[in-house]
Write a structure and sequence with these properties.
The chain has about 150 residues and is an all-alpha fold. It has a domain of about 90 residues: Leucine-rich Repeat Variant, CATH 1.25.10. It contains nine helices and no strands. Helix 3 packs antiparallel against helix 4 and helix 4 runs parallel beside helix 7. InterPro entries: ARM-like, ARM-type_fold. One of its GO terms (cellular component) is MLL1 complex. This is Pre-rRNA-processing protein Ipi1 N-terminal domain-containing protein.
Length: about 150
């Protein structure tokens, strides 16, 4: 009886002899770490507003304004060029997004990249649109606080 138990216990703890040229067998307690992924398509979120004006790169004004917060100078400069293109093609967008446009462009004036600063000044130098912007701002503001600054 003791011989049977001892033999059974030894069978449990037998070392597997490895053969030359054969792959090592997997352990009994090996964990399978494979995983699979699937993409989720949300068609409602992917729909673009068909009547919103876009640039030649298919970016609307909200996309371009959000790109002004990017860390890369070239992305900011591309967004400013896209805004300039969008405002020359669709001047009505200026009236709708005037406050966000001015605040975002003003924040980019202090950028460390000189090309970004130059593009920001070019954006606001759109002559007829800049005059319209200043005119709208002066209409919105009361005339007394702006009188010392206007000539």
């Amino acid at each position: 009886m003791t011989k049977c138990k001892k033999k059974k216990r030894q069978d449990d703890f037998q070392k597997v002899k490895l053969k030359v040229g054969k792959t090592k067998p997997k352990a009994d307690n090996a964990t399978n770490t494979n995983f699979r992924t699937k993409g989720i398509n949300l068609t409602e979120q992917l729909k673009k507003d068909a009547n919103a004006p876009t640039t030649h790169r298919k970016l609307n004004i909200k996309d371009l304004l959000s790109q002004l917060h990017h860390y890369s100078g070239t992305v900011k400069q591309g967004a400013l060029v896209g805004l300039r293109e969008l405002l020359t093609l669709h001047p009505s967008e200026l009236h709708q997004h005037l406050s966000s446009l001015l605040s975002e462009a003003a924040a980019v004036f202090t950028d460390k990249d000189p090309n970004v600063r130059m593009s920001a000044t070019r954006l606001l130098r759109l002559e007829k649109y800049f005059v319209m912007t200043v005119g709208i701002c002066l209409q919105v503001c009361s005339p007394t606080p702006t009188k010392p600054y206007t000539t």
